[in-house]
Amino acid sequence: MEQSIQNHVEVDGSWVTVDVYGDPDGPAIVLIPGAMADAAAWAAVAQHLEGWQSVAVVNRRGRHPSGPLTDAYGLETEIADAAAVMRRFTDVRTLFGWSYGALIALHLTNTLAVPQLIAYEPVMAPFGAGALPDLHRAHAAADYDRSVEVALRQVTGMDAAAVDALRSHHAAWAQMRRLSPPIYAETRAINQALAPERFAVRAARVDLIVGELNQDRAPYGTSFNDVARHVPHATVHQLTGQGHLAHLQAPQRLATLVNRLAA
C-alpha cells in the first residue's frame, strides 16, 4: 500500500501531520507511534497492512513536520490530538498504539468508542521515572546527545557498550538525536498521568501485543504486565523473536500479526 496524502490537523496551540496510505475515505486503522519515533519510522509497517483500505500514521507533535509540544503539554494534550485525528476519518475500525502511543490510545478509548484497539508494549507509570532528573538536565542544556544516552541507559536499560556501539553508527545516532527533544516532556507526561481503574472501556475489542524478548522482563515487559492488569477484557498476543523495536527490525512480521487481528 502506497502513501496517498499527508493531512495537516490543527490542534490546541500546534498541529500534527498524518501520513495516509491507501484510500483516505475507506475503513481505516489509525497508528500512534511512541517516543523516539515518528510517522516515517512506521512506514514499512503501514505499507504491509492489508486489513484496512486506509492506514493513517500520526506524526505526533514535537517531531517534524508536526508542530511544537507547547508549554501546557501533557498526556491530555496527546489524547486530544489523537481524538482530533480520529475525527478526520469517517470509518475508523481500529486504533493501534505503540509504547507511549499505546498509552495514549488506551486513555483515549476510555472516552471514545472504537471497534478495536491494538496496543504493542504499552507503558505506564512508573516507566522511566528514575531518568527524569537527568533527562531534565539534558533537555535544559539542549544536549540531545546526552538525552539519547540517558534514554537508552536509564529508560531502556541498555548497557554502556551497546550505547557506544550505537553511537558509532552515525546515521542511526543522528536519527535518535533528531527525535530526542520531546523525550523529557513525554517521559514526565507518562509519570504524571493518573491510571484509571480500567483502560479502554469503550473499545469493543482489545488486543495487547508483547514481544517475546521482553516477556516479563524489565522495563518493557514489566510495564506491559502493569498495563494488562488494567485491561481485563483484553486478549494478549506474543510476537515471536522480537522486542520493543519490531516496527524497525521486523516490520513485515509485525504487520502480518496486526493483519491477522483485523476485526
UniProtKB/TrEMBL annotation:
Domain of life: Bacteria
GO molecular function, one term: hydrolase activity
Sorted UniProt keywords: Hydrolase
UniProt cross-references to Pfam families, sorted A to Z: Abhydrolase_6
UniProt protein name: Hydrolase
Species, as recorded: Paractinoplanes deccanensis
Limits of the AB hydrolase-1 domain: 29-255
Hydrolase is among the record's keywords: yes
